[in-house]
Amino acid sequence: IITSHLSTLVFDVLSTENQSKGQSYYGLFVPSRNGANQGQWLNPDFPISAYQLKESGFVEFREDDQYTALMKAAAETFTLSLTPDSLVEGEIILKKKDHVTHLISKVGKSLGTVFLTNYRVIFIPHDKSSYDDAANAEETSIPLSLIDEVSEYGQIGIQIACKDWRDVIFGFPADSRNLFFKEIKEKMAIQSTEKVFAFSSRELFSMNAWDLFDPMSEYKRQGMTINSNWRVTEANNTYVLCPTYPRRFVVPSSVTDDDLVAISKFRSKGRMPAVVWMHPHNSATLTRCAQPRSGITRSRCPQDEKLVSAILQANPNGQEVYVVDSRPVANSIANTFMGRGIENTDTYKGTRFKFLGIGNIHVIRESFKKLNVLCRFNKDDNQRWLSSLENSHWLENLSGLLDGVSLIVDTMDKHGCSVITHCRYFQLEIQLENPP
């Protein structure tokens, strides 16, 4: 909303020009939300308080054949000094570029200023009324962690593809695109968790965020701490056994911390079987872990077999323990040649296997990218939209996931059997250098 001080300055400029030309011309216009051509001109002879500016929220420098240059000059003069007024504590402006064009699909374009901070990319339009839709007249804010990909667009543009499926395109003045493009790429390349903005933020909270979740209270709520079949281990207190597991987790009471040391060496990434949920009525438990390092030689770990057996014995209502592996069978066989694999039902007594057939992380990511690209286009503009959706295999992947969920729920709730699930195996991980 234009301020009284700013309006006075602009009115002075416009009035001087109009008087020198012997004309009466009001260069500021408040458009109504009912339509772009409805609203009121502002008369410099009346105070700004005489107008109901809150209805639309912005003022337009309305162009005229004789005064177009004047209107644009006035708009630029009083908006190039704009800075984001919503910076959070600890956020720092690293780069700023004026005269940048924001291209908006099916709406048009707007001239403004782009800021790069240590947290996000911000675009502030110079003249918010240049948007046909008032709902788009706000700042465009893109957190760096939300950027999926940034690429060059034409000769002077940058296209930012976001993880929330937004596509944002900025057009830069000549010879300034490459520098801004390079800066964004560098800020996206986060090598460790400590480099994300959360560690630079100076925002204060009324409580310690580490106290928002208390695992011991959660275990107590589920009844694990009062059940003699289970105990809370602190064997991973320094994150040595498994950097991606919490300090405390639930295991069968008969399994010692020394057993867990051996098991962590047998399971991929040290992700040993850990109980995460217990059925409130039939004592069936849900346990997560990684695949065993059995390999083609079918290596064994007595401590691991002991743990799985203890899970079965802790549930008096279940006759078996279901091991649900999210991979296709072929993938599990291939993994045996890399030193991993599956549990052998001959040595893991009372277990039954079920493969869900869900693709690995690379397959799912590729499927998601195809869906992302597809949803950027209106289905009315693409006659092959439905067939393209089918070719992305996204619905197929969702179906496989929901089938797996249904199987686990049915196994635990209706049949009273405990379930062990295998997590996916992948290489990329960002870990805390100094865990709290």
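The above is record 1. Record 2 follows with the same two-line structure.
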Amino acid sequence: VSTQSTGSTLVAGFVNSYSTMLPLRVIHGLGTFIITAGVDMLMIEFVPTDLRNLSQLFSSCTWMAGSLMLIGISYAIQQWRHIFFTLSGLFAVFFLIMLIIPESPRFRLVKGQEKEARKTFQRICHIFNTDPIPKEAVITFQDYDKNYFGQLKDFRTYPLMQKNTIILMICWMGIACISYGLLFSWSKLGSNIYTTILFSTLGSFLAHGSGMVYFTIQYFGRKRASVIFFCGLALTFYTSIPCFGVHVTDGWTLDNIVCLISSLFISGVWGSVVLLTKELSPTSHRGMVYCLCSSSGRIGSFVGPYSALLYNEIEPRIVLGIFGSIAALAAVAAFFQLRQHG
């Protein structure tokens, strides 16, 4: 899949037709989705429960670092073909890194490769400095012989899992709508798109780097942390409405600054909701639930930019109110989701 994203990005740098570019971007998107989902699934299987919040902190910081790198590359190069060539090189480096990461032991057991699964377990024990698995220990695995659609039918058997998945899908859709809506709004919220995106990314980096997201999740738990961050996000948007048009400098207004502060809470929501999605889902259904939630997030990512286009059509305060209301509704939904224990 990494080669798929690398190849499609590289080829896209040579095309001269927009109609040819679109399918290449679709191929790249499919590869990127599988990569991000796969990395998240590996993390939840490799990392002990008490370290998952910390590992989420590290992965979020590296994500922000990658975003800062992308901003720097785009600003320094500003020639779209060269940007594509540069990014394809970065994908190639990622491909080499993935070769080092061991395969999921659960996947090995599903395929009947007990010897390879045992080796992976031993590597995990070495990394976390725990007692190795004795050679005489018997590794058992109960295969769950159902495909994706068969797992969907299990929602009728397990209504609690169905309820929690729907709530998580609402949370994913809401935060994706707001995230991508702001991403495509910075040219309207600030005088310089590079500066506004940079400050937004720095805000997200600060949220994780300062430990704000980590300690909030650690103290309040995944569920209550997601409610707190959603409420904080709604409050920032509602606060930006009366601040609209109040100039701080020639290029910045007070509502611009308040919207940038929202990036702190957006990072917090992503951190807590993603952790909940991975931990509350049964191991046998985790991939299916994660894909459903991520797909609903993709719907939100489509709706968000179109909401941002309303800046040019209606009163901008209404758009800020819409984003605030989406965050408030998601906070209510998050309140009714299951609470993670352990």
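The chain is about 75% helix and 0% strand.
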